[in-house]
Design brief:
It is built from no helices and 24 strands. By secondary structure, it is mainly β.
């Protein structure tokens, strides 16, 4: 087995159970049968490779010495690597780099930072263009229910196809056909047993675009957010990531917004939700509507929801009985 934490004898390392064929003229290597290929990320790219969140705070065992190289490893039934030669700007020596990498069948990618495994991906096929810094990970074509998966700690993404585009400031992770993203919210003490528990799940028909530089994920076409016991549905949604904790802190839903949580619900055109505080507000054109625990609907300029205690407040209410100031108790 490969030891991705061990210092390599060479820059790249390929091994396989069945065979490895190297064509010197074409500068390609084909490995078959539980093949492995270890690649070292270019300096400055270590925090981006196959990452949902970019750089994150160190976790796990103590890191190796500062400046240790950061490898990632591709495992598949067949791997084809195309190389290119260049001259090292520092030493003047010739070196070989992987220019393009393809993995087929049972694809598994795992990446290491300072000797610790910190992100993984699985799919049916893998294409990596090292020059353009673009990687494509589709699910197995033979199984219509299969999904490519990327995960980092407790956070993950599943889709028919996931693309990684690395660039200055973070690059992007995208899914043209939508899928599901899960993030663990930053824990806060629940003050009510009905407060949401567990992760935040967001699905849509796509595309999904995660701009890692802006720490923002855009979900297009019929987005659905679940943070127990609440559900938010809308046409378009944006989720905002805290750059320090790498967790979702806020979501904004637009167009045909529907919100529901046990005994309360609302309808409008715009919804902003504070994930760690479990509260949000709804607005609409001409007005938003809110329903409280007693089942009454009241319209107003703004409808505020609090999951802890299942509280609703309507601003400038009009409707069935606005005399109580739009509050349900």
């Amino acid at each position: 087995e490969l030891d991705p934490a061990a210092p390599p004898a060479e820059r790249h390392w390929i091994q396989a159970e069945e065979s490895i064929a190297y064509d010197r003229n074409a500068m390609t290597a084909t490995a078959r049968g539980r093949a492995f290929c270890r690649v070292y990320a270019a300096e400055g790219d270590e925090a981006q490779m196959f990452s949902l969140k970019g750089a994150e705070k160190p976790v796990g065992p103590a890191p190796r010495a500062p400046g240790a190289p950061t490898p990632w490893t591709l495992k598949a039934q067949e791997i084809v690597a195309r190389f290119s030669e260049s001259v090292d700007a520092k030493t003047g020596e010739k070196k070989m780099d992987i220019e393009h990498l393809t993995g087929t069948r049972d694809v598994h990618i795992f990446s290491f930072k300072d000797g610790r495994e910190n992100r993984e991906a699985r799919g049916g096929r893998f294409e990596h263009d090292a020059v353009r810094k673009i990687s494509i990970l589709p699910a197995a074509e033979s199984d219509p229910t299969a999904r490519a998966e990327v995960w980092q700690g407790k956070d993950w993404m599943k889709s028919k196809e996931i693309r990684f585009e690395d660039g200055e400031g973070g690059g992007q992770v995208t899914s043209p056909t939508g899928g599901i993203v899960q993030f663990e919210p930053k824990e806060q003490a629940a003050v009510d047993p009905r407060a949401p528990k567990g992760p935040v799940n967001i699905t849509c028909l796509g595309p999904i675009v995660f701009d890692r530089r802006a720490n923002r994920i855009s979900f297009s076409r019929d987005a659905v957010v679940n943070q127990k016991p609440a559900t938010l549905k809308c046409r378009e949604l944006e989720a905002f990531i805290d750059p320090a904790t790498k967790t979702i802190t806020r979501v904004e839903g637009r167009q045909e917004v529907r919100f529901a949580s046990e005994s309360m619900s609302g309808e409008g055109n715009f919804f902003e939700w504070d994930v760690p505080r479990r509260r949000g507000y709804l607005t609409g054109q001409p007005q938003a509507r809110g329903r409280g625990p007693d089942g009454r609907w009241i319209s107003g300029d703004r409808v505020d929801f609090e999951l802890d205690g299942q509280r609703v407040k309507v601003g400038n209410p009009v409707g069935e009985n606005p005399a109580d100031g739009g509050k349900w108790r």
